[in-house]
Amino acid sequence: MNPKTDWFFNKQTKWKEAYSELRMLVLDCGLAEELKWGCPCYTVGKSNIVLIHGFKGYCALLFMQGALLKDTKNILVQQTENVQSARQIRFKSVEEILKSKSTIKSYIKEAIALEKAGLKVELKKTTEYKTPEEFQAVLDDMSELKKAFQALTPGRQRGYLLYFSAPKQAKTREARIEKYLQQILDGKGLAD
Fold it and tell me: How far is CA 177 from the centre of its chain?
């Protein structure tokens, strides 16, 4: 147990008991406990395997390379369509965790074995993401914007492409693009 994570397990939430059960299960699999992204994260060497987190309606184990797991029990959840590698096992009660201990441990052990084998999820390249036609038109009209966008890191490019593509109405997509033109020209990402 890492004392840096104690605050997470000691805070009063409806998931407190569930978090403690998950912590014991994960530590029993021989992983090191660290604090990353404000959550307990469990590692082998320098590689993240799984983390514990919670939301309003559930708490979860998030497997970093979960897309590689066999998921024989069909319990892994892809948080959104844009999440490529991570998968969650969600729990709505501590009883669910207690009933699933052996299954949870088998998933954790499989994740450790995959990491030790060096397997990684093949991530989509930025060029494989759809560029909304409204943004493509602006890129075609403004060579300095096109150059600035291409100079951004792949992650920042994906962030913009996903954000610009999300709205159903063209008017909303155009408004988003207009709002962030200067930020792209300044070499900044969506959240910078």
Answer: 25
